[in-house]
Amino acid sequence: MPARFRLSAVLGAIALVLTACTGETGTSGPDTEPPTPTVSEEAPARPDVAPEITTTGFVEGSNPGAWIFDEYGVGDLTEFDIPDDDVLCALGGDYAVTANEVNRIVRGWYLPTQERAWQLDDATCPTDGFVPQRLPQGAVLGTPTSDDGSAVFVDFATGETIVDIPILDPESVTAPMPLGEAGGILILNLEGSLYGVNRSGKLMWELDSPGWTWSKNLMTGHAFGIDEGEDVMVVNGVTGNAVLETTVPKGREITQTSDGFMYQEDSDDPYTFVTLDGTVSQLDPDFQGASHVPTSLSGALFPLNLYLSHNAGPIFDAEGNPASFDVDLETFHREGTDVEPVIVAVTADGEHAIVDDRGGTIYGVDQAGDMVWYLDALRPWVMESYIVVECGVGNDQILIPDFGATGADDSSLDAS
Known about the structure:
Layout: E1 4-5, E2 77-81, E3 87-92, E4 95-100, E5 105-110, E6 115-121, E7 138-142, E8 151-155, E9 161-165, E10 177-182, E11 185-190, E12 193-198, E13 203-207, E14 213-214, E15 222-227, E16 231-236, E17 242-247, E18 255-257, E19 260-264, E20 271-275, E21 280-282, H1 304-308, E22 327-328, E23 342-346, E24 352-356, E25 361-366, E26 371-376, E27 378-383, E28 386-390, E29 396-401
Antiparallel strand pairs: 1-22, 2-29, 3-4, 4-5, 5-6, 7-8, 8-9, 10-11, 11-12, 12-13, 14-15, 15-16, 16-17, 18-19, 19-20, 20-21, 23-24, 24-25, 25-26, 27-28, 28-29
């Protein structure tokens, strides 16, 4: 494995492996009023501080949250400890939402000052295998009557209800998990079946697909699902229509692109590519797969042509331009380990990247490969432009760059 990571290098393959998950429907909302959030003190003015990242060019269809804030290049970071016994429910803009599933408490946090912004009692936050929600404006929460499956879509900043979600399946006792939003329609996954709800709380469509597993990366407004490792379906998020239904070899890795997906029938076979309209083609046998930064795990999807181009990437800024990094990864190798360091994130401007030595330290580096900062942390991942890390068992932290916010000091770091 080459030690130097250059523009034309190819990272180790990062493919999305999908597995398996039920429904019937109703169109009326819960009889109770939406829950009212409470705060411990009068809410002060909370300005918008975190910059908004937009994507353009061929990466326009990707989630902008796959790129980290440019301010991570500076290295002046503050650590927000996710409260004990809480899990990260959602993250976006200046706010994080955490949930205590045992006590049924959901709280919103204003990250620039790390103060609690709001709290909802007797509420839950549906997650997908501890993977947080990824909606741009808020979070879907189970309400005090969630034993009948009712839920609300709440605002990040206030905890107030934006959409009162109807009971989707009277027989289900869980709240739905949001996959994303397409054309003003919230795409919700309830035990494998999909539902489309508009911003007025009206059920627009439903897809009875119990047992299916759905990716949280929308492909230009389409949901991608797989059932028991072989049946594949692509669903238009606005209409709920299945635009593609096909079968792939069971257990094979599937790589989503923004315009389709690809897989190998067998490890020695050429890749098969399937477009959103169902067109099937065999790729050049010399193509052995590729991956890029940002990764699909962060929410980035790239078109097939990018994968096939020998001159593309592998790192791109949020405008779709190649970001030229000359990083000698071997210099970040942790002594005594046999794992190779990897680049896991890049800033929106493409000027800085994050290296994980996969042994307990992460590094911020510039395009020349020089270290700007480092932090002892495990398993960094990108969530809506923030870096989230593990710092010991049960100690997850959100790393907050310096946005130039005022009023934050060390006394505000206690989130308990």
